[in-house]
Design brief:
Helix content is 36%, strand content 44%. It is of the alpha+beta class. It has a six-stranded mixed β-sheet, covered by helices on one side. A hairpin with a 2-residue loop joins strand 4 and strand 5. The protein starts with a helix and ends with a strand.
Length: 135
């Protein structure tokens, strides 16, 4: 690859990643809003039908119905604050990324890293994979 081609490729990657960061940031802000309402069904509606979800509880769940059930078990008053740390475009219809999320609860904060993959669907961007790890 020539220097000019490398520079053009790097610029294109940077632009794609900036767009991925914008999309992921918007999706996470919508998730945060719905999580904080709290409305488990509305929050779970941001996930695909085949979404794989690993929260802080030991067992993973799949699909919006199970994810809503998970959210109904979250202690009352829990609030989330999310911020994208890194995002990338994997293809025309999917992006991935890493976020910092802090779950504020009455007995203290729980900081986590959230890795996720989102796909473009008829209804807009939806989360297909969600995995948190405690810090």
């Amino acid at each position: 690859m020539t220097t000019a081609n490398t520079a053009a490729h790097t610029t294109a990657d940077a632009n794609a990643n900036a767009k991925a960061t914008q999309v992921l940031g918007g999706l996470l802000q919508e998730w945060q809003s719905r999580f904080n309402e709290p409305d488990p069904e509305r929050a779970a509606a941001l996930f695909t039908e085949d979404a794989l979800f690993q929260g802080l509880f030991p067992d993973p769940v799949t699909g919006p119905g199970s994810i809503a059930g998970y959210y109904r078990q979250v202690p009352p008053g829990t609030r989330a604050v999310a911020r994208v740390l890194h995002a990338y475009r994997g293809g025309d219809d999917w992006i991935g990324g890493l976020a910092q999320v802090v779950f504020h609860q009455h007995d203290g904060d729980i900081p986590v890293r959230l890795s996720l993959v989102a796909v473009r669907a008829d209804a807009g961007w939806r989360i297909r994979q969600y995995h948190v790890s405690r810090l």
